[in-house]
């Protein structure tokens, strides 16, 4: 059942673009720098299993998620590649991570103490990546002393194995890379203080992978660029790769009606016709992630921009068109139609947010249709997914 859907709104994910973006980034890297594909948050809304498989086929060697639960989901779908949980996990869940062969991020000593208690009975070793906070101010140890303490506990046991050490940049997507270079220096200082280095050392997100070769080490963690979106509007025009957005969002015209001067549209009647007008009802609303603040945003119908009028409802919204059109006509909410395009960047600007949030907010009600070579290769209706 999970490959059926019975509504006229869907997201199309071009897996060729995911792979082309990833390969283009790989081209920038030295041969011995691996790519970890970041597929957390359902692959930024694109669909974790499909994107993970496409990324691995295109040369990524490992995957990153934010939650242990997300990693388990990948394993349960048969994905055997190395997986790292970037976020925090509970020490008491260490045996679960070990059992599934999922590596976790460690950001303090107390996690290790707790994990060791729980790993006593465990047959499997737990693999960890130690996180260093060099200026993101989020997860991670900040000093050589903390690293020494962690190394000290770890050398007395054999249940936990250090697989990696990493940090995360806060401003690699800004014009000025000074802050990132500073973070890199702090990272190197702690790295040099370590008794021995683990096999994986990584710092770069998409922005750094495209702009900061000094930060490559032996792996980069690529998220947003794999989805074909720029890490920020600021650096969009100076990226060394031509990123191709992977996701488009479509719906269909469900009703076409004429209204007259004084008639209003949607809740609150905030939109009032000044003259006879044609109004089209679309089956997408805020419960799909097409949020109320998008009122006034354009959509594309037959290659022309046309505005959403009135308040966006939970499941529907209305647009004004110049002339009556056929019911079931395809409407592009994100993507290209003829000469016109509406990008996640445009929506992000309208909503005063970032493109990451646009694709992540597409909800569980939107079926995802996967294409390769222009053909549908898979359909996931999250409402039916097990
Ligand atoms: N590494 C870590 C630790 C991350 O948190 C992220 C993205 C990435 C790599 C990939 O970054 P990219 O998508 O810019 O390539 N994390 C987040 C976040 O927490 N909020 O927005 C993006």
Please provide a written account of the structure.
This protein is of the alpha/beta class and 386 residues long. It has 2 domains: 195 residues, TIM Barrel (Alpha-Beta Barrel), CATH 3.20.20; 138 residues, Lyase, Ornithine Decarboxylase, Chain A, domain 1, CATH 2.40.37. The strands form 3 sheets. Strands 1, 10, 11, 14, 15, 16, 17, 18, 19, 20 and 21 form an 11-stranded mixed sheet that branches. Helix 1 crosses helix 3. The structure holds ligand PMH.
Draw up the topology in text.
Layout: E1 9-14, H1 15-28, E2 34-38, H2 40-44, H3 48-57, E3 62-65, H4 68-76, E4 83-85, H5 94-100, E5 102-106, H6 109-119, E6 126-131, H7 144-155, E7 160-166, H8 178-192, E8 200-204, H9 206-211, E9 219-222, E10 247-252, E11 255-259, E12 264-265, E13 271-272, E14 277-282, E15 298-301, E16 304-309, E17 317-321, E18 330-337, E19 340-342, H10 344-350, H11 355-360, E20 368-372, E21 375-380
Helix pairs in contact: 1-3
The chain binds ligand PMH.
Q: Tags for this entry?
A:
single chain, alpha/beta, TIM Barrel, Lyase, Ornithine Decarboxylase, Chain A, domain 1, eleven-stranded mixed sheet, eight-stranded parallel barrel
Name the CATH architecture of the largest domain.
Answer: Alpha-Beta Barrel
How would you sum up the major sheet? 11 strands, mixed
Shape, per Cα inertia axes: elongated
Query: What Rg, in angstroms, do the CA atoms define?
Result: 24 Å
CATH fold annotation of the largest domain: TIM Barrel
**What low-confidence regions span 5 or more consecutive residues with pLDDT below 50?**
none
Figure out the total of helices: 11
Counting structural domains, the number is: 2
Give average pLDDT, whole number.
Answer: 97
Secondary-structure-based class equals alpha/beta
> What is the CATH first-level class name of the largest domain?
Alpha Beta
* Cofactors, ions and other ligands in the entry: ligand PMH
Strand content: 25-35%
Tell me how many strands there are.
21
**What is the terminal-to-terminal distance?**
10 Å
User: CATH homologous superfamily of the largest domain, by name?
Assistant: Alanine racemase
Helix fraction, binned, reads: 25-40%
């Amino acid at each position: 059942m999970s490959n059926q859907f019975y509504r006229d709104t869907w997201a199309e994910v071009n897996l060729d673009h995911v792979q082309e973006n990833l390969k283009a980034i790989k081209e920038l890297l030295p041969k011995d720098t691996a790519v970890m594909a970041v597929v957390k948050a359902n692959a930024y809304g694109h669909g974790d299993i499909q994107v993970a498989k496409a990324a691995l086929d295109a040369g990524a060697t490992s995957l990153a998620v934010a939650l242990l639960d997300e990693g388990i989901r990948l394993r349960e779908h048969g994905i055997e590649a190395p997986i790292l949980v970037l976020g925090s996990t509970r020490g008491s869940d260490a045996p679960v991570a070990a059992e599934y062969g999922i590596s976790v991020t460690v950001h303090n000593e107390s996690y290790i103490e707790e994990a060791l208690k729980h790993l006593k009975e465990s047959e499997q070793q737990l693999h960890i990546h130690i996180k260093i906070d060099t200026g993101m101010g989020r997860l991670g140890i900040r000093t050589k002393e903390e690293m020494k303490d962690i190394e000290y506990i770890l050398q007395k046991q054999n249940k936990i194995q250090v697989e990696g050490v990493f940090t995360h940049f806060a401003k690699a997507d800004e014009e000025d890379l000074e802050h990132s270079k500073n973070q890199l220096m702090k990272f190197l200082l702690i790295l040099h203080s370590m008794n021995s280095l683990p096999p994986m050392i990584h710092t770069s997100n998409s922005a750094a992978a495209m702009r900061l070769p000094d930060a490559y080490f032996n792996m980069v963690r690529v998220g947003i660029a794999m989805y074909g979106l720029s890490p920020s509007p600021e650096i969009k025009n100076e990226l060394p790769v031509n990123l191709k957005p992977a996701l488009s969002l479509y719906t269909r015209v469900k009703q076409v009606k004429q209204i007259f001067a004084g008639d209003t549209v949607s809740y609150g009647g905030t939109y009032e016709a000044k003259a006879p007008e044609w109004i089209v009802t679309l089956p997408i609303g805020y419960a799909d992630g097409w949020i109320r603040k998008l009122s006034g945003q354009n959509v594309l119908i037959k290659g022309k921009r046309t505005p959403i009028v009135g308040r966006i409802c939970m499941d529907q919204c209305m647009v004004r068109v110049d002339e009556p059109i056929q019911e079931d006509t395809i409407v592009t909410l994100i993507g290209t139609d003829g000469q016109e395009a509406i990008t996640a960047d445009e929506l992000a600007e309208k909503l005063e947010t970032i493109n990451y949030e646009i694709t992540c907010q597409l909800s569980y009600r939107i079926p995802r249709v996967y294409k390769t070579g222009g053909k549908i290769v898979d359909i996931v209706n999250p409402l039916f997914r097990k």
